[in-house]
């Protein structure tokens, strides 16, 4: 039986792209349809992330109202643990999906199986942390143990969202978030009626609702039997570890910045910063989703083509425009609404809203270039920029806190983000997509599965026949 090269397999299975159409009238028609489809997908993703961002704010408000001050502080710790676990799973599995759309469509079971293994592993780590925390505070220990039980399914829920982005089915992601939102609102309502508003119960209904939503991922992708495997992680390891480095650097910078601002300016200043972050988080989540959507779109295009530039410009315009609209809304937000959301934290937070919203505009200017470079698989460059950005942002923010407390920290953060935006655009505009390392030639026998050998940057793993 004759072995076929990877090039032959790809030629047979390739989808005809707009720039390959010979008839100019047909080309314009295909390009128009492609733009409309991309626009619809981006709109759906934007709605999905708006719901996800609003859900996070709603959960924080419900927790603040249902729990006491001390219990709400412990809830914040549990939520940070969840966000950290979620970020690790995204780096190792979710984000590599975006640059491997063909494999995501053909073999979603591999990614889901790896996600299940990772979710169980992360759950075990959180359970161990819960057992240790139980010695210090029983409420925190119990809450972490409940989170550990739910975490494998929460990882599955988030992975399902990324599968929806990667496979051009953002409606799947929207369904997952809507189901979680409806379930958690109903469950919290039941808690308030039955007077069981303890931290453990709150984490149970929040995490349990997300876990139930996560189970929908299996029927969405026709998975009748879940196979636990690390095959997807092995196959995409050349990307995954770099995404993990970026995530670790970003989280480390956020932690160092928080500790630095708290130590220099005091707990009240840190609380004001957290309040500003809470108000801008929904827009930040939409920006993150726009990066994911742009990456998924660009990964299917010829690197360096006009279509890539259009997607980069479109993503930048969307995220920056949304940030400007957010600035107008927050700067003119009535005091009564501000106090409703933040309570006593509203007063110190209010003076930070201008630099906080300008900082979100700076992030919006970065989103398109990040999607472009990631979609063109320039992962080495994006990791270097992320590491450099963490140093710039951490140093500038702490320096600003020394000069003028929380307000100085935020304006210094704006300056740092502006410098980072210049770096991102400089790298993007000078990037040569053809300079990326090429994949090693692999041979795919007729009827055989593709090798699970990790792909190098600038390549995709071989497709199955």
TrEMBL record:
Pfam families xrefs: Polysacc_synt_3 (PF13440)
How does the UniProt record describe the way this protein sits in the membrane? Answer: Multi-pass membrane protein
Keyword Transferase assigned: no
Record keywords: Cell membrane, Membrane, Transmembrane, Transmembrane helix
Q: Where is this region: Disordered?
A: 438-465
Compartments annotated for it: namely:
Cell membrane
**TM stretches of this protein:** 57-83, 116-136, 142-160, 172-193, 199-218, 315-333, 353-373, 409-430
Tell me if Transmembrane is a UniProt keyword of this record. Answer: yes
**Gene Ontology terms: cellular component:** plasma membrane
Report the protein name in the record: Lipopolysaccharide biosynthesis protein
What species is given as this protein's source?
A: Nocardioides pocheonensis
């Amino acid at each position: 039986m004759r072995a076929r090269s990877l090039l032959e397999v790809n030629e047979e299975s390739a989808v005809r792209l707009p720039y390959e159409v010979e008839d100019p009238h047909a080309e314009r028609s295909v390009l128009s349809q492609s733009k409309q489809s991309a626009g619809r997908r981006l709109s759906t993703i934007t709605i999905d992330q708006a719901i996800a961002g609003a859900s996070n704010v709603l959960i924080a408000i419900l927790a603040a109202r249902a729990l006491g001050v001390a219990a709400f502080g412990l809830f914040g710790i549990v939520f940070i643990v969840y966000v950290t676990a979620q970020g690790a799973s995204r780096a190792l599995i979710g984000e590599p999906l975006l640059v491997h759309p063909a494999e995501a469509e053909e073999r979603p079971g591999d990614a889901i199986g790896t996600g299940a293994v990772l979710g169980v592993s992360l759950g075990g780590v959180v359970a161990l942390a819960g057992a240790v925390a139980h010695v210090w505070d029983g409420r925190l220990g119990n809450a972490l143990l409940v989170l550990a039980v739910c975490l494998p399914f929460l990882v599955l829920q988030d992975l399902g969202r990324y599968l929806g982005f990667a496979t051009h089915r953002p409606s799947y992601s929207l369904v997952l978030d809507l189901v979680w939102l409806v379930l958690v609102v109903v469950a919290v309502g039941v808690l308030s009626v039955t007077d069981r508003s303890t931290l453990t119960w709150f984490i149970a209904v929040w995490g349990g609702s997300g876990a139930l939503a996560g189970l929908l991922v299996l029927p969405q992708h026709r998975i009748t039997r879940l196979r636990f495997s690390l095959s997807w992680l092995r196959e995409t390891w050349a990307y995954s570890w770099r995404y993990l480095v970026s995530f670790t650097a970003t989280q480390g910078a956020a932690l160092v910045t928080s500790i630095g601002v708290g130590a220099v300016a005091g707990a009240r200043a840190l609380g004001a910063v957290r309040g500003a972050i809470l108000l801008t988080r929904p827009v930040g989540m939409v920006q993150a989703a726009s990066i994911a959507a742009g990456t998924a779109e660009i990964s299917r295009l010829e690197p360096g083509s006009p279509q890539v530039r259009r997607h980069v410009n479109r993503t930048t315009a969307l995220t920056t425009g949304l940030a400007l609209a957010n600035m107008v809304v927050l700067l003119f937000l009535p005091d009564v609404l501000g106090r409703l959301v933040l309570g006593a934290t509203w007063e110190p937070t209010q003076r930070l809203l201008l630099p906080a919203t300008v900082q979100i505009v700076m992030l919006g200017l970065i989103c398109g270039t990040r999607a472009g470079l990631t979609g063109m698989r320039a992962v080495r460059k994006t990791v270097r920029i992320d590491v450099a950005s963490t140093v710039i942002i951490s140093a500038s923010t702490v320096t600003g806190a020394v000069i003028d407390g929380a307000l100085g920290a935020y304006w210094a953060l704006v300056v740092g983000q502006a410098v980072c935006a210049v770096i991102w655009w400089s790298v993007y505009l000078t990037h040569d997509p053809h300079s990326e390392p090429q994949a090693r030639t692999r041979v795919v026998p007729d009827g055989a599965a593709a090798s699970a050998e990790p792909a190098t940057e600038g390549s995709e793993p071989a497709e199955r026949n």
